[in-house]
Amino acid sequence: MTQQNDSGSDQAAHHLVLAHYCPAQGNEARVLELLHSLTAASRTEEGNVDYQFYAPGSESGEILIVERYVSAEAFAVHRESEHFRRIGKDQIIPLLEDRRIEEFAI
Q1: Which distant-in-sequence residues (6+ apart) come within 8 Å of 25 by Cβ?
Q2: Are strands 48-54 and 15-23 parallel, antiparallel or unpaired?
Q3: I need a surface site. Which of 29, 47, 57, 70 has the fewest CB within 10 A?
Q4: CA–CA distance from 37 to each of 62, 64, 72, 88, 92 (Å)?
Q5: Which pLDDT belongs to residue 68?
Q6: What backbone torsions phi and psi does residue 58 show, to the nearest 5 degrees?
Q7: Cβ count near 36 (within 10 Å)
Q8: CB–CB of 89/41 below 8 Å?
Q9: Residues 64, 61, 25, CA angle at the centre, nearest 5°?
Q10: Partners of 63 in the beta sheet?
Q11: Which residues lie across from 64 on neighbouring strands?
């Protein structure tokens, strides 16, 4: 199913990433806290079009991160950024029980 959106920023995005984060029990609040920092930093990247995350209403459950970039290359730059290494790799990922990343060309 293809969905079109007329906003200019949506037309500039050609790479969609869905990151599914499942915090280990007891780590949910800390992961959400860190995601606020990671979101703010990621939104400043030149190739980032949008970066949002969605958490369940309770403290436990999967967190969905929806990221849009101008290209797959821009996403690769994000994954090598200082803030992703410092916040994502070093702090968030060790707190997860499971993590799955899906990438789509749009």
Answers
A1: 60, 97
A2: unpaired
A3: 57
A4: 18, 16, 23, 10, 11
A5: 97
A6: -95, 180
A7: 11
A8: no
A9: 125
A10: 21
A11: 20, 54
- Reported as a single tens digit per residue, the pLDDT across 21-33 is 999 999 999 999 9
> Would the pTM of this model clear 0.90, i.e. be above it?
no
Q: What single-letter amino acid sits at 22?
A: C
Radius of gyration of the chain (CA): 14
Place of tokens 């990151």: 19
Single-letter amino acid, residue 77: V
DSSP 23-91: EPTT-HHHHHHHHHHHHHHHTTSTTEEEEEEE--SSSSS-EEEEEEESSHHHHHHHHTSHHIIIIIIII
96 DSSP β-pair partners: 23
pLDDT exceeds cutoff 90 at 96: yes
**Residue indicated by tokens 């797959």:** 72
Q: State the pLDDT confidence band at 12, using cuts at 50, 70 and 90.
A: low
